[in-house]
Amino acid sequence: FSADGERFAVGGADALVSIWNVKDLVCETTCSRLEWPVRTISFSHDSQYIASGSEDQLIDIAEVATSEQAHAIPCTAPMNTVAWHPKRLLLAFAGDDKDKLGREGILRIFGYPA
């Protein structure tokens, strides 16, 4: 669900992310840039962006209102989870990738100024 409670998103094996209006139960827009099953979806704190991760080895960030791509984050493995910071446009994500020593379990942050 979006933070404002007006929308919810669904994704699945068809690789589509659909954004629905809660009040009318109408699909407002669909993001179709992914090619593999959707594993995770998250709305930003301001309900303006939606991040979706899949087996594509990328995270798609789209504008909720238009479904236009705002950014794509390349990844080295399929992603299992994405989560926005509750007050900032920071995105944490983790997947099946490994660190330099071959150990699994890497958490990354996107959006933090260098």
Low-confidence stretches: none
What count of domains describes the coordinates?
1
Number of strands: 10
Q: Would you give the CATH topology?
A: Lipocalin
Q: Indicate the proportion of strand residues.
A: over 45%
Form type? globular
What is the arithmetic mean of pLDDT? 92
CATH class call: Mainly Beta
- Largest beta-sheet details: 4 strands, antiparallel
Which secondary-structure class do the elements indicate?
mainly beta
N/C terminus separation: 30 Å
Order of helices and strands: EEEEEEEEEE
Q: Largest sheet, order of strands side by side?
A: 4-5-6-7
Helicity, as a percent range: under 10%
Known CATH architecture: Beta Barrel
Number of helices: 0
Q: For the CA atoms, what is the radius of gyration?
A: 14 Å
Description:
- Helix content is 0%, strand content 48%.
- It is an all-beta fold.
- The model has no long low-confidence stretch (mean pLDDT 92).
- WD repeats lie at residues 1-23.
- Belongs to the THOC3 family.
- This is THO complex subunit 3.
- One of its GO terms (cellular component) is THO complex part of transcription export complex.
